[in-house]
Amino acid sequence: MSSTTIAYGCLTIAIICEVVGTTFLVKSEQFTRLGPTLMMGALYALSFYLLAQTLKVIPLGIAYALWGGLGIVLTSLAGLVLFKQTLDTAAVVGIAMIVGGVVVMNLLSNSVVH
């Protein structure tokens, strides 16, 4: 398996850990519930570790844009599905712009490792 494939795999898992960790942040009720707080901390730590491993191959700006951008989209979806939070039109447009930026960067930038 190539180092690029492994790096993108690490980045994918890092994004998932960050999103799940953020759902535990909500469940921690401002750090008053031990179990969700510990899960949140462990998932955030794993997410940052995997992001750091990604940086061995993928440039910082690209990796962080993917991690942050996809994290925002997935966290918004988690809020919608799990916590019944709503998004207004401006929020949906903003999220679409983030997705557009990630797509443009990945398809058109020479900085992205393929």
UniProtKB/TrEMBL annotation:
Topology of the protein relative to the lipid bilayer: Multi-pass membrane protein
Protein's UniProt name: QacE family quaternary ammonium compound efflux SMR transporter
Organism: Psychrobacter pacificensis
Chaperone found in the keyword field: no
GO MF annotation terms: amino-acid betaine transmembrane transporter activity; antiporter activity; choline transmembrane transporter activity
Family: Belongs to the drug/metabolite transporter (DMT) superfamily. Small multidrug resistance (SMR) (TC 2.A.7.1) family.
GO cellular component terms, A-Z: plasma membrane
Pfam family, one: Multi_Drug_Res
A biological process from GO: xenobiotic detoxification by transmembrane export across the plasma membrane
UniProt keyword terms in alphabetical order: Cell membrane, Membrane, Transmembrane, Transmembrane helix, Transport
Main location: membrane
Transmembrane segments: 6-26, 38-58, 64-83, 90-108
Subcellular compartments: Cell membrane
Coiled coil: none
Entries under InterPro entries matching the protein: EmrE-like, Small_drug/metabolite_transptr, Small_multidrug_res
